[in-house]
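Before the break, one more example. Copy the sequence into your notebook; we will annotate it together after we see the structure.
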Amino acid sequence: MAQEEYEQSQTIDAPPEEVFAWLSEVGNLPEYLPPVVASSVEGPSAEGVPGRRIRTTLEYPGEGGGTFEAEGYLAVDEQERRMEWGAEEGRDY
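Here is what the structure looks like once it is written out:
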């Protein structure tokens, strides 16, 4: 599966290091990343996978609604102010 990249910009009246610290906090993902409704750190990622293992609860879009659980990883590079997330080996996310 091809790796997708997404980028979005918004001006925020706060120091960049404070904004990035807030954005990179796993518990804040539901505040700005739809369809995530809950998120937590589960521990270190599998060998060869960057960052930390995270668990998220996501909402299905549309009328049918509902939620589902997903595990993946979140890697944070504070110096570059870059975040990467995805699935550990064997997952299609």
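The longest helix spans residues 16-23. The radius of gyration is 14 Å. Try to locate both features in your own notes.
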